[in-house]
Amino acid sequence: MTTLSVTKEVLLKRLEGLHQIPTIPTVLGPLLRYLQQPVEQLDAQKVTDLIAQDKSLAAQCLQMANSPLFGRWQKVDTLRGAIVGLGFHRLSDIAMSCGVLNMLPGEKTSIDPVVFWEHSLGCALMCRHFARKIGFIDPSKAYLSGLLHDLGIIVNLWVLPKEFRAAFEVARAAGIPLHEAEQQVLGFTHCESGRLLAERWGLSLDLIEVVHLHHSPQDSVNHGALVSLVQLCDLLCRTSGLNYGYVEKRQVNLAEETGFAVLARHYPCLKDLDWARLTFELDSYLDEVHSLVRSIYRT
Amino acid sequence: MELEVQNNARARRRIDDSKSAGMTAVSSLQFTGTQQRPPAAELVRIRDLIYQVAGIFHPDNKLQLLQDRCSRRMSELKVATLHEYFQCLTIRPTRQAELVALLNEITIGETCFFRNQQQLDSLRDVVIPKILQAKANSCLRRLRIWSAGCSTGEEPYSLSMLLLEEANGLLQDWNVEIVATDINERSLAYAKNAVYGSYSTRNLAPHYRQKYFVPVGDQLQVHPIVRRNVSFIRINLSDNERVTAMKSVDLIFCCNVLIYFDLASKSRVIQHFHSNLQPYGYLFLGRSESLFGVSDEFRLIHLPGATAYTKKIGPAQEGSKRI
To answer: Which of A248, B119, B158, B281 is geometrically suited to a Cys-Cys bond with B306, CB 3.0 to 4.6 A?
Structure first.
């Protein structure tokens, strides 16, 4: 337990004190705040203007907007065109995806940034798909939750690169879930470090719960359904080809996961869901996520 | 008898396929940069029909493959549109035969050694250790595997090779017994002969090729050490009596076989699998094959890059609906 408190203390100190802690990208802060408003009050031009402030971000957004992953089947060459073609929320999803994922450290990290991108983007897409399937009230929020759920890994990569590398190596060698290896090696997981950053950024409470509790959805107080949805999609991604770059040597029975019971309380239809088909549908994302992320990451 | 005819047709097709070394590689949908059209609604309907009837699913990125297979059938039938072809599969009197013909097209090229590497990796890394753990207190150190619908033998021989690799490690002091069954005598004769062309052996890693095969002319014969663990028996999966005799198996592989069965026959076979399988056993189906709507007695398990089924503990849940 000493390790836990000391390391947590060290982490907190580093989070408070160091300059290399990832700060929310300039464009995304205002964008996130703007998105908190009711849909009817949102203005597409305002979103275009916000994203266009960052040329690189805008270019990446266009690249993603032209992917079938976001439902676009005809070429778009302007942000405005993307909003018209894809809709306001879809473009916001894309902007958030590019913005947040650009925050990975530039130097060599334990997790391959491309792989991390693929996992986060794949999880976001899966959350959105799953949300629609079960009639979850806000598929766009589900997307954002999937995208941000591993925020703590970005924190660990920045703040504790050596310690995190050790945890990652343990996970990879033993084929165990990353958060279990973090707990063994660091005494805490990316869930805790992610929560610190999410709070510092002023993310909404539901997103903070997702970042903090996606490996223990039973502890969620107010947003159990959203947190559980992310837990299940995260698991599906990790058992498919959208993992962290290593294979977790274990079997998963989704119906026995804590998130399943929590989510089933809100959505009883979950018990009748065709999980096999959902898994096969995830396959359709794999190739496209791989090629999209690789093409964006090279730009 | 209808089933038998279908299975014979399938088996003949597979033998012919396994000999056709020059077959073109399976094409896949290239979304990025080239494909900028949503899939045709009729194609999606055909995809859903196949899933509903045969339990095999084509994700969006494999729809082009399905389109190719439909196109072959359409040119044979001289049908111009997918809409018309959908009617061939659903309305016309020959719909049953056409569905079998399409399923044959879909499974073309499926037969080869190490067809589903991720499934085999999961078997070695996750499933076998769990089974050995469950059998730790058993006095008989024997692993019993049933390859149901083994066709020309690539699957049981792949399993045998994979497990031989573990003979000095994970499976030290364990006997492996693989019972491979098929309805088709011709397939079984081919399997027992164990000589394969380049198409069947296209996925073989050099290590396996060198260690477990003997060149015979321009073909390869499976080494006796691999064949020793495999026995071939003719069994019709619809023959209740014969199937019931396959008792106490630890693992069942039944890949791309049930897709040819109607729902009632499929349910019956699955019920037999349930009775034949040990409580801790696993049932593996083909890639993208599902038991949804067929049986409530198995539960879906996710393994790295693969899925499998294990027996449910406790009473079966009520019938399931599709979402």
So the answer is: B119
Strand partners, A29: none
For strands B213-216 and B277-285, give the pairing. Answer: unpaired
- With CA atoms as reference, the chain B residue closest to A73 would be B36
In sequence order, the β-bridge partners of residue B177 are: B144
Contact A254 B323 (CB under 8 A): no
- What are B252's strand-pairing partners? B146, B283
Q: Is the predicted ipTM greater than 0.90, yes or no?
A: no
Chain A residues in contact with B54 (beta carbon < 8 A): none
Q: Is A221 an interface residue toward B (CB < 8 Å)?
A: no
Cα dist from B35 to A66, A73, A296, B26, whole Å: 11, 8, 18, 17
Q: How confident is the model at residue A158 (pLDDT cuts 50, 70, 90)?
A: confident
Q: Give yes or no for B108 touching A (CB within 8 A).
A: no
pLDDT interval class at A8 (50, 70, 90): low
**Integer Cα distance of A68 and A64 in angstroms:** 9
- 3-class DSSP state of B259: helix
Tokens matching residue B38: 């949503």
CB atoms within 10 A of CB B259: 22
Q: Which amino acid does the sequence have at A45?
A: Q
DSSP A206: H
Asked whether the predicted pLDDT for residue B294 surpasses 80, the reply is yes
B293: chain A residues, CB-CB within 8 Å = 274
Residue of A nearest to B285 (CA): A276
Q: Which residue of chain A has the CA closest to B62?
A: A284
Q: Is B245 on the interface with A (CB under 8 A)?
A: no
Q: What's at A297, amino acid-wise?
A: Y
Q: Average pLDDT for residues A125-137, to the nearest whole number?
A: 94
Decide: residue B210, CB within 10 A, 0-12 exposed, 13-18 middle, 19+ buried: exposed
Burial class (CB in 10 A: 0-12, 13-18, 19+), B122: buried
Beta strands B195-196; B219-222: pairing state? antiparallel
- Work out whether strand B277-285 and strand B230-234 pair parallel, antiparallel, or are unpaired: unpaired
Say which residue, B316 or B216, is predicted with more confidence: B216
Average pLDDT in the B96-107 region? 86
Q: Decide: A289 and A242 in contact? Cβ < 8 Å.
A: yes
* Chain A, nearest residue to B323 by Cα: A273
| Residue from B31, B44, B282 to probe the interface with A (highest A Cβ count within 10 Å) | B31
Give me the mean pLDDT over the A161-169 stretch.
92
- Determine what percent of chain B falls in helix, strand and coil, rounding each to the nearest 5: 45, 20, 40
Whether residue A104 lies within 8 A of chain B, CB to CB, comes out as no
**Which residue's entry shows tokens 């107080």?**
A221
In which region does residue B111 sit, left (phi positive, over 0), alpha (psi from -120 to 50) or beta (all else)?
beta
- The torsion defined by the Cα of A209, A212, A218 and A220, in degrees rounded to 10, comes to -20
Nearest to A284 among B37, B61, B121 (CB): B61
